[in-house]
């Protein structure tokens, strides 16, 4: 497979993250192992509370004060990020080599400072530019993210920008440092569909130019289909399945991935209720025994309630963590609704007057 | 503190029974089955700042038929929420009128009528955490409407009704003593729905009820709204920005751009033959969960300048085929009609 020849930029080994809440230790990330390759777009998908944000926050040392890495390592260019505890140690990495774009651009920009200053600030800090140089460069960056009339809008404040434009500004700030890894934490959830597709397009184009690696966090599989090379599905603080985008969409193996796919409203037929995932995501307060998804899983076997399944290899690129792949397990069929996903989606594309793709 | 949110126990006899006014009620007869329940007539809505009025919605002519789910789609700032809010009398109409079962409910109306509007038309909001009172328990939140309209006989009856509604939306009666922050987003939206549905409204304005929710929970909330609509003969105005969601749930869809309806058709027809360039642009942006389709996706961007409207040829909403309206000038109208005649685009 192609991905194997690529260079790894980030190697996460056996990572566990805990939080101390009400004097109790709660394990939120449980033994996650994952590689991120140079130049790819990796999407991490899961419901709220699956731990996807916490997982990526460890890459930039931005865990909340009551959170800590309890075991494991994150190797980034030979350095173990998991060992960094002090603020100073993150200098030159956080924001510079690994940058993050957050969900709500209004809360990540300072409402009291002009857009121009907020971009220039980053350039002065990380590249040692003078104010004058930095402002020149900031105009260029705003142009890059297609803000109309960048010179005139430099002195505007965040509230004078629309939601989509603010997100573009945040991208410009991330660009300013030329990061090696860009983490996008639900960057389009708060935006309209039309604006969303423009922002995704922009991130994709800039990635081609700057050749960074994108880690994309979302709960919406529909968004992921557009951007992702590889997809990791997260549930209950673990990665339960990962593979190329085609692996996940066309031959998903984990019952949770099945459930996520079948609950997409795009797959609904009129006058039939939509399928959905029963129950709630697990709370981490009590220790999870066996497979975290077992209680909500229609395909759960007795072993799922007793023992945590290992990661099974399906192909060079595709892995899933479910007992269904054990040779002793009975053969089960995927839910009907996603069996012919490709055909259905082709149909949907034709209805929307879109190209089908090969 | 806690007592503030407990109701005084009252008997049926002590509170004077409110007579049903019935100003807005209409008998169902086969003849009026297709009469609109709500109609907007030449509505303009604007916000005044000093003497300057900023027009948010203009030239709105719209009939919503009893029992349908009407989808209203547009981007942020298009005025879709304003339309919904004008219905529940939160925003004022500056021109034109809104009729409910033929009775005017916009502008100055009697108190009794205004009261009845509030019972007949209920709203479900986008952000369930912002629209629920954090300091009140679920029991209080859900039964607030019952109390306001005296829709219960005594305390036992009220509790029974509330518990029944909780079960109906998939929550448990023991949840009643809890507070909104103890619930997940999806559960909070269920509480919001229960609160609206308990006073048995005829019309629901659902303003982006699922945008703030996880995908897996969206399906549950959509199902719930659809169930209610089927069972209680409810009419729903479903406001959203995502056409893929609206397609599933609505009977008819109106596309709104910059305060004006640009296209209006049945859900099937709108997807079959989208005419207005803005509708096409919205359709092109719908994410399809298929990598191969998405990789060749071309998003059509809509520029309002492309129309080249002149002053003597202002665009209007025309009916190009039965039930299918599109905003166009005369030249565009001719081309749209041609497309319809040929039975589709291309």
Question: What are the SSEs and their pairings?
Answer:
The complex is a heterodimer of chains A (358) and B (346).
Chain A: H1 2-5, E1 8-21, E2 24-37, E3 41-45, H2 52-57, E4 67-76, E5 79-80, E6 98-101, H3 105-108, H4 115-127, H5 131-144, H6 150-153, H7 163-176, E7 181-185, H8 193-210, E8 213-218, H9 221-227, E9 230-235, E10 238-244, H10 245-250, H11 255-262, E11 312-313, E12 319-320, H12 336-339, H13 341-351
Parallel strand pairs in A: 3-8, 3-9, 6-7, 7-8
Antiparallel strand pairs in A: 1-2, 1-4, 4-5, 9-10, 10-12, 11-12
Helix pairs in contact in A: 4-5, 4-7, 5-7, 7-8
Chain B: E1 36-49, E2 52-65, E3 69-73, H1 80-87, E4 95-100, E5 103-104, H2 111-120, E6 121-124, H3 128-131, H4 138-148, H5 155-168, H6 185-197, E7 203-207, H7 215-231, E8 235-240, H8 243-249, E9 252-257, E10 260-266, H9 267-272, H10 277-285, H11 291-295, E11 316-321, E12 324-328, H12 330-341
Parallel strand pairs in B: 3-8, 3-9, 6-7, 7-8
Antiparallel strand pairs in B: 1-2, 1-4, 4-5, 9-10, 10-12, 11-12
Helix pairs in contact in B: 4-6, 6-7
Provide an overview of this structure.
The complex is a heterodimer of chains A (358) and B (346). The model of chain A has no long low-confidence stretch (mean pLDDT 88). In chain A, the strands form 2 sheets. In chain A, strands 6-7-8-3-9-10-12-11 form an 8-stranded mixed sheet. Chain A has a 4-stranded antiparallel sheet with strand order 2-1-4-5, with no helix packed on it. In chain A, a hairpin with a 2-residue loop joins strand 1 (8-21) and strand 2. Chain A contains 13 helices and 12 strands. With 358 residues, chain A is α/β, with parallel strands linked by helices. By secondary structure, chain B is of the alpha/beta class. Chain B has 2 domains: 1-6 and 66-90 and 110-258, 3-Layer(aba) Sandwich (Rossmann fold), CATH 3.40.50; 262-346, no CATH class. Helices cover 34% and strands 23% of the residues of chain B. Chain B has 12 helices and 12 strands. Chain B is globular and about 65 Å long. Residues 11-19 of chain B have low confidence and may be disordered. Chains A and B meet through helix 8, helix 9, helix 10, helix 11 and helix 13 of A and helix 7, helix 8, helix 9, helix 10 and helix 11 of B.
């Amino acid at each position: 497979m192609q991905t194997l020849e690529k260079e790894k930029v980030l190697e996460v080994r056996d990572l566990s993250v805990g939080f101390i809440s009400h004097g109790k230790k709660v394990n939120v990330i449980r033994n996650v192992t994952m590689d991120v390759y140079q130049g790819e777009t990796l999407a991490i998908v899961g419901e709220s509370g699956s731990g996807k944000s916490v997982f990526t926050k460890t890459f930039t040392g931005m865990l909340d004060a009551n959170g800590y890495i309890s075991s494991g390592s994150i190797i980034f260019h030979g350095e173990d990020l998991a060992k960094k505890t002090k603020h100073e140690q993150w200098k030159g990495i956080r924001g510079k080599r690994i940058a993050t774009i957050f969900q709500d651009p209004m809360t990540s920009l300072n409402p009291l400072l002009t857009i121009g200053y907020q971009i220039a600030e980053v350039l002065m800090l990380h590249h040692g530019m003078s104010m004058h140089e930095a402002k020149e460069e900031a105009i260029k960056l705003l142009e890059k993210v297609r803000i109309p009339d960048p010179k005139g809008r430099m002195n505007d404040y965040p509230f004078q920008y629309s939601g989509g434009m603010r997100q573009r500004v945040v991208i410009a700030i991330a660009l300013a440092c030329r990061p090696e890894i860009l983490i996008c934490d639900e960057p389009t959830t708060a935006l309209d569909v039309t604006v969303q597709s423009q922002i995704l397009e922009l991130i994709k184009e800039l990635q081609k130019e700057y050749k960074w690696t994108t880690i994309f966090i979302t709960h919406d599989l529909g968004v992921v289909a557009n951007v992702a090379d590889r997809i990791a599905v997260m549930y209950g603080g673990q990665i339960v399945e990962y593979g190329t985008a085609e692996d996940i969409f066309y031959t998903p193996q984990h019952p949770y991935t099945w459930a996520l796919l079948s609950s997409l409203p795009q797959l609904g037929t009129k006058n039939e209720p939509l399928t959905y995932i029963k129950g709630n995501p697990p709370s981490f307060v009590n220790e999870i025994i066996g497979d975290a998804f077992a209680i909500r899983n229609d395909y759960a076997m007795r072993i799922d309630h007793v023992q945590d399944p290992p990661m099974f290899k399906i192909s060079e690129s595709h892995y899933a963590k479910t007992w269904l792949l054990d040779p002793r397990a009975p053969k089960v069929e995927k839910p009907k609704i996603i069996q012919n996903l490709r055909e259905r989606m082709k149909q949907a594309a034709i209805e929307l007057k879109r190209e089908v793709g090969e | 503190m806690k007592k503030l949110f407990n109701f005084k126990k009252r008997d049926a006899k002590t509170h004077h029974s409110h007579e049903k006014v019935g100003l807005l009620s209409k008998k169902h007869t086969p003849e009026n089955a297709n009469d609109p329940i709500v109609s907007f007539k030449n509505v303009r809505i604007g916000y005044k700042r000093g003497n300057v009025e900023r027009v948010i919605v203009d030239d709105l002519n719209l009939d919503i038929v009893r029992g349908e789910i009407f989808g209203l789609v547009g981007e942020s700032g298009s005025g879709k929420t304003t339309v919904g809010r004008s219905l529940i009398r939160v925003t004022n109409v500056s021109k034109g009128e809104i009729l409910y079962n033929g009775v005017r409910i916009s502008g100055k109306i009697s108190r009794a009528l205004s009261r009845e509007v509030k019972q007949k038309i209920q709203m479900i909001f986008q952000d369930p955490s912002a629209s629920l009172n954090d300091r009140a328990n679920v029991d209080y939140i859900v039964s607030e409407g019952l109390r306001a309209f005296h829709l219960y006989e005594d305390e036992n009856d009220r509790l029974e009704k509330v518990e029944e509604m909780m079960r109906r939306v998939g929550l448990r009666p023991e949840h009643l003593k809890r507070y909104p922050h103890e619930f997940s987003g999806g559960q909070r939206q269920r509480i919001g729905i229960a609160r609206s549905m308990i006073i048995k409204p005829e019309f629901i304005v659902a303003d982006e009820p699922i945008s703030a929710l996880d995908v897996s929970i969206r399906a549950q909330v959509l199902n719930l709204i659809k169930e209610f609509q089927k069972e209680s003969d409810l009419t729903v105005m479903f406001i959203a920005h995502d056409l893929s969601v609206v397609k599933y749930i609505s009977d008819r869809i109106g596309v709104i751009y910059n305060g004006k309806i640009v296209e209006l058709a049945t859900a099937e027809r709108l997807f079959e033959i989208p005419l207005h360039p803005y509708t096409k642009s919205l359709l092109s942006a719908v994410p399809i969960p298929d990598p191969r389709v998405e990789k060749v996706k071309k998003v059509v961007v809509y520029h309002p300048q492309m129309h080249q409207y002149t002053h003597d040829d202002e665009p209007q909403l025309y009916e190009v085929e039965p039930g299918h309206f599109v905003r166009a000038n005369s030249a565009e109208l001719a081309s749209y009609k041609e497309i319809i005649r040929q039975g589709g685009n291309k």
